[in-house]
Design goal:
This protein is about 45% helix and about 15% strand. The protein starts with 5 loop residues before the first strand and ends with a helix.
Length: about 110
């Protein structure tokens, strides 16, 4: 019956979507994305910046040298995933950190 099945409930604006889940194993495999996050690279930027021992101020300075108008609070909001990141900012951040763009998107 309908009530014996497991469903993943996703709320999108005014709609609720139910996705059937075949088993409890499927639940463990699910990777949920928080839709309130405004970017998916913020955590990787934070981890790479810490690994390279850069402060947010140093990253800001490297971006400003490239002509990218960004300040330290903006870097903080990007890392907290509460600010959108523009395409040219992604390229500049990768250059400033000395990594590839792809490495910013690794899971």
């Amino acid at each position: 019956m309908f009530f014996n099945k497991l469903f993943l409930c996703v709320n999108i604006t005014h709609y609720t979507i139910l996705f059937p889940i075949k088993s409890t194993y499927s639940i463990k495999k699910l990777r949920l994305i928080n839709l309130s996050n405004k970017n998916i690279i913020g955590n990787n930027i934070y981890l790479i910046r810490k690994q390279k021992k850069f402060t947010q101020e140093q990253l800001t300075a490297k971006l400003n040298i490239q002509g990218i108008e960004i300040d330290r609070p903006m870097i903080s909001r990007i890392e907290q995933q509460t600010r959108y990141v523009l395409d040219y900012e992604i390229k500049g951040i990768a250059t400033a950190l000395g990594v590839t763009i792809e490495s910013l998107f690794k899971e």
